[in-house]
Specification:
The protein is mainly alpha-helical. It contains nine helices and two strands, in the order αααααβαααβα. It is about 70% helix and about 5% strand.
Length: about 200
């Protein structure tokens, strides 16, 4: 069985967009992770994370976009276990930094389409984090409260950095000519959901 799972994992990593991956397979891997998370962490997650590029594919690149969505869906299923969720948070917040923080995320108004692609990709990532968090909050997982320090500040800083960067550009040029990806209303709303979920899990008093 382990060999079959490894072979299937390799198929997932190389050809996510070519196959309709059965939820049963990832449910099985998720069950394995509850007993021993290390095989999933070592063999499956790296292949899934490698399917997430640092920049979004073009709007017409449908197979690549489906590949990303399938990888995120698989990560959502697999990463509810505490150690795997911690890995998920680390890797996806790092990916958000690449999408939102560098100069590519402060795009000129003539590149609105590109800005929308960056915002959509970031929204997919935030949505994945929110969905996994919702599952963990519903189960009352004891590891959720620690993300008030390990996740919430990272999300907060992402938006603060963006706001200050645009403000500085406005001060220097007298007119802001760049679009800040993190300030997209979809990202702000989804980030608020994530923060609310973590706060909801904090012990009362």
């Amino acid at each position: 069985m382990c060999s079959a799972l490894r072979d299937h994992t390799l198929q997932v990593g190389c050809h996510l967009y070519r196959f309709s991956i059965s939820d049963v397979v990832f449910d099985l891997l998720s069950a394995v992770a509850k007993v021993n998370f290390r095989p999933v962490e070592a063999q499956t997650l790296p292949l899934l994370f490698s399917s997430l590029p640092d920049v979004p594919p073009a709007r017409h690149a449908i197979p690549e976009r489906i590949n990303i969505l399938n990888a995120l869906s698989a990560l959502e299923t697999l990463c509810t276990q505490a150690q795997l969720f911690e890995t998920l948070v680390i890797r996806l917040t790092a990916k958000l930094d690449l999408i939102c923080v560098p100069s590519t995320s402060f795009l000129t108004l003539s590149s609105v389409t590109e800005a929308e692609l960056h915002a959509a990709y970031a929204h997919w990532i935030l949505t994945t984090l929110a969905k996994v968090l919702q599952k963990k909050v519903d189960r009352e997982d004891p590891d959720v409260p620690k993300y008030i320090e390990q996740l919430v500040p990272k999300i907060f800083n992402l938006f603060v950095f963006s706001a200050f960067a645009v403000a500085e550009d406005d001060d220097d040029g007298g007119r802001c000519e760049r679009v800040s990806v993190p300030m997209d209303h979809r990202l702000v709303k989804k980030a608020g959901e994530i923060v609310s979920l973590v706060i909801q899990a904090l012990p009362s008093g």
